[in-house]
Amino acid sequence: MSDVTAPIIYLIDDDEAILKALRRLLETYGHHVDPYSSAESFLENHDPEAHGCAVVDLGLPGMDGLAVQELLVAESVERPIIFLTGKGDIPASVRAMKAGAVDFLTKPVNAECLLAAVDAALKRDANMRQEASVRHKIEQRMASLTAREREVLGCVVAGRLNKQIAAELGTVEKTIKVHRGRMMEKMGVRTVADLVRLSVATHH
């Protein structure tokens, strides 16, 4: 493997011929493909931390495609999914899209449509991972605050002035200024607007 961080396209279809054809197509365009013929084997072996997306047949025997999606969502695995179906099942496609599916393609799959959907899914995966990384960094900064600095942060974000914070926390304005300065420095921000933005980012 040339690049261990290359995104993985998890391909799940119980039809061996389709699995081979789609794998060949995706690999021709430089994608790293991990194929499975059942939902169960995919769920047992996939790496939830790996970058990438999943191309899932809706009508899998045993656990079907929607059940795979529901399980990943329940386990907080943010994996963009593209569904394939032979029936053009409208109610199922609506359910899948509402639950966050990237696309819903009918078989036989058009190569250009599949490649475009995979590109869109990989972009979504990269964006989600970047947002998660930013949230993690902010949470680390939050964790470095003392209990009092955290109280001051809450008050500042709520729009209170130093003297109001001092009255609320039972101390003097001068002390609040010191706590506020240290808190802003640890959070890596200079303005209240930036602090509010960081605070909102951690609650998405």
Automatic annotation (TrEMBL):
A Pfam family that the UniProt record links to this protein: GerE
Gene3D superfamilies (alphabetical): 3.40.50.2300, Winged helix-like DNA-binding domain superfamily/Winged helix DNA-binding domain
Domain of life: Bacteria
PROSITE patterns, alphabetized: HTH_LUXR_2, RESPONSE_REGULATORY
4-aspartylphosphate: residues carrying this PTM: 57
GO MF annotation list: DNA binding
Start and end residues of each HTH luxR-type domain: 138-203
Residues of the Response regulatory domain: 8-122
Name of the protein this chain belongs to: Response regulator transcription factor
Keywords, alphabetical: DNA-binding, Phosphoprotein, Transcription, Transcription regulation
Coiled-coil region list: none
Species classification: Bacteria, Pseudomonadati, Pseudomonadota, Alphaproteobacteria, Hyphomicrobiales
GO biological process: phosphorelay signal transduction system; regulation of DNA-templated transcription
Keyword Transcription regulation: yes
